[in-house]
Each structure stands twice: as structure tokens, then as C-alpha cells.
Amino acid sequence: MEFNLRDILTVTTILFAVIDVVGSIPVLLEVKKRVGHIKSAQATIVSMLIMIGFLFLGETLLNFLGVDVQSFAIAGSLVIFFLALEMILGIRLYKDEIPSTASIVPVAFPLIAGTGTMTTLLSLRAVYNIPTIIIGIILNLFVVFVVLRNLYRVEKMLGVAGISILRKVFGIILLAIAIKLFRTNVGF
Asked: How far is CA 89 from CA 84, 158, 171, 174, 184, in A?
């Protein structure tokens, strides 16, 4: 088992851009307003279970469905591409309703460990080793926990303009990553 710091940073950055906890702050604030309190630890642990579970069982599920990891990675790169466009252009291509239930839905799923995150995990698995991806997941979930725990402070610190700038910067990074994943798995 070999750890490459550059790979860990790359995986962590990719997941950070896809999870987009900073860009989700307005949605998280709305959920908190509706339900009264977001259980930070519970949402973080459930997100981790979903992500790591899908990291290990996602490929088995795909094999059961007759889809190879490279095809899923290409599909994932397209999903990441559209997520990046949403971030850069400030539009929503996929709209979901926010039920006023608990910290698990919609915070853990689909905001943190949503379809984009799961697709990204399998796409990353086609390129990086599992321990590197798990470290990237844990580092991101630490950030998610801190953000969930300090939503109002984070919003005040970044401000509307700061959140918008971060979202666009990570959108550009995500767009480049989507193109790289596509090229790697198509074989260009």
C-alpha cells in the first residue's frame, strides 16, 4: 500500500469540488431554517457510510448490471462536466426538492453523498487506489463536519461574493478534471 501525497491532494480536491459543501451553504442554511437543527455528526457519519459503501460495493453493483468501471467512469465524467457547468454558469440543470425532514435527508443524501459524489468515487477508483480515495473521503468529511457545525460563521466569513467566487473556481477545476477523466477512460 503506497501513499502518494499528490494523489491524495488530487482526490481530496476532486471530492471537495463535487461535494461542494461551500456552494451548498445557502441550501444547508435553508434546511436548518426548516428543520431547526442539522445534526452535524450524524449527517457526516451517514455520508461516510454511503460513500465508502458505494466505493466498495458500487463496482459489484455495476458488474451485476453488466456495466464496466471504465464506462461508468466516462458516464461519471459527463456528470462531473455538467456539475461543473452548473457551478460556473450559476444554473441548475438538476433540480430536487428539499423535504423538511432530518439531517439524513437531504443533508447526508443527496447534498453530501449524492449521485455526483458516488459517480465520482467510481470514476476515481478507475484511476486511484482505494486507500487514497478513503483518505480523500475522510479529509472532505472533516471539512463537511466543520462547515455543518459552523454554518452561520462560514457564511459570514465568506460572504455572498466569496461563496460565489469559490463556487466558480472549483467549477473550472472540476471541468478540467471531467475532461481528464473522460480522456483517460476513452484512451485518447
From this structure: 8, 20, 9, 13, 26
